[in-house]
Amino acid sequence: MRSKGTEECRALYFDLIVLSQKQKPVGTLPRDMESLAKWLSVETSRFTRLCDMEYGPLHRWTRCRCGSEIRLMHPRVTKMVLEALSRKHANRARNDAANASKRKERLRITVAQYHADLAKNDAAILWMDEYLVEKGVGYRTAKWIEKAIGAWSAHMMELRGARPR
After folding, report:
1. Fewer C-beta neighbours within 10 Å, C or N terminus of the chain?
2. Is the pTM of this model over 0.70?
3. Do 69 and 107 reside in the same domain of the chain?
4. Domain of life, per the record (predicted)?
């Protein structure tokens, strides 16, 4: 398209790629030529003529099914969207893992102020962290840390067959 399309067709082609990023699903366009022409501020008849060219604004855009609707998609745009989503998910997973690691380390430091040996127990720290997350505790006050330690103790007593009093 870059080397064979006219300047006008390349510009409209690029605009369509940009406009497709705001659509649902991302990277697609409606099939309606009037809507596309209006978005591009081009007369519908002119837009249709340009699209009839071998390297027109809709070069390599093909029909696809999006739920019950038929829309236009471009393989290169679809690939870029999928790669961007993949990077977004990978970044989110990496950030979530880093946040969880920092959260557990802060919990370990706080638990060490209560019981140094318990703070060395990785299973206990993991269990207490999950307990606090389940309870929806955002800010881990001393009261919540004490509850988590108590819950861990009760959990361990249950595992050993003893009943807490």
Report:
1. C
2. no
3. no
4. Bacteria
